[in-house]
């Protein structure tokens, strides 16, 4: 007999160290979602629409209590080479170094890149600093023939695309 009422039907259960099933914490659920998206979007998966990109990035970056700056490195047909979490920050900022981004793009032989970071505040609107950083990264990558396709800001279940705002 279950200890949960019918309103608990949607609770995700995980096994504890003693082998008992207990309700999953939000962190465990987000970790499981990140692992699931990794299985779904393997190397070579095509990012053919903004919605696919946003869904992938929301699954990867939602729920962090600190800023995380990441990049999707893509081939010339916009297929995934690798998703890399490049820089970890504080609750409201992350230091991003264009030199390191260029080095990673060259290491992976990427033809294109989509940047992303999260806003733990819950507001996906790009700040002036976000816009300036995107311009700097785009300029640095243009020198080595890597196209910047977008910069997506994730804030929980919401996201904002600088490309859709016409800022690229």
Description of the structure:
InterPro entries: MPN (IPR037518), RadC_JAB (IPR025657), UPF0758 (IPR001405), UPF0758_CS (IPR020891). This is DNA repair protein RadC. It holds the Pfam family RadC. With 168 residues, the protein is an alpha+beta fold. It has two domains: 30 residues; 118 residues, Cytidine Deaminase, domain 2 (3-Layer(aba) Sandwich), CATH 3.40.140.10. 31% of the residues lie in helices and 25% in strands. The protein contains four helices and seven strands, in the order ββααββαβαββ. The strands form two sheets. A five-stranded mixed beta sheet has the order 4-3-5-6-7, with helices on both faces. A two-stranded antiparallel sheet has the order 1-2. The longest helix has 15 residues. It is globular.
